Amino acid sequence: MKDGRIKIRLLCDNDEDYKTLENWYQKEEIYKHFEQRKLTYKEVKNKYLPRTKENAEIPVFMIEYENQPIGIIQYQLVNPENKRLYNITTNNCYEIDIFLGELKLHNKGIGRKSINLLSKYLFNEKQAKLLIMCPLKENIVGIKCYEHCGFKIERYFKTENTIGKMQEYTLMIKVR
Questions:
Q1: Distance of CA 159 to the CA centre of its chain
Q2: Are 31 and 71 in contact (CB under 8 A)?
Q3: Alpha-carbon gap, residue 142 to 170, rounded angstroms
Q4: In the chain, what are the domains?
Q5: Closest C-alpha among 44, 37, 35 to residue 13
C-alpha cells in the first residue's frame, strides 16, 4: 500500500525489523500508549514473529516514509470477547493499532495517511463493516488524528492493559 512518500509493507521476520521495533520500544513516549513498558529484543521477536507469517491473525505492517521505517500499523478481526467489551454485534469488524516510532515525524499527517490506507484496504479487500480504534483516553493527540480519519468517539471503557493495570480507553468507530 502506498500514498506518495508513505509506504506500508508487511513486517519482515529479520533482525533489521526486530531491532527497529526494539529501539522504538525503549522510548517512553511510544510504549506508554502501546505496550506500557519497554520490550527487549527477545520480547519483540516473540511478540511479532507470529505476525510476520502468512495468514497471521494480527498482520503487522511497517510504515515507511521516504523508504525509512518510522512506525507500525496492524489490524485484527474483533474477537467475541472484545465484541462484548465494545458492546457491538456487527460481524466483520476490524480493530486497528498504530504507532509512529520516529518522534520527529509526529504531527506531519503520516499516521493519518497510514490509517486511511489501511482503512481503505480493510473496507475494500476484507469487506469490513466497521473499524475500531481504542486509544487510551489520555492520548489526546491520537484521538484527534483518528477523528481526522473519520473515526467517531462512541464511549469510554475501562479494562486491564498489557501489564494488568486498569486503564480507561476511548472506543472509536468508523463505519463503511
A1: 18
A2: no
A3: 10
A4: 2-128 (3.40.630.30)
A5: 44
139: helix, strand or coil: coil
DSSP string, 37-55: S---HHHHHHHHGGGGSTT
Determine the Cα–Cα distance for residues 80 and 89; give it in Å rounded to an integer.
9
* 68-87 residue pLDDT tens: 999 999 999 999 999 999 99
Q: How do residues 136-164 score in pLDDT, each as one tens digit?
A: 999 999 999 999 999 999 999 998 766 67
β-pair partners for 173: 132, 152
Q: Are 88 and 31 in contact (CB under 8 A)?
A: no
Global pTM reads 0.91
pLDDT class for 36, splitting at 50, 70, 90?
low
Q: At what angle do helices 140-148 and 110-125 cross, to 10 degrees?
A: 50
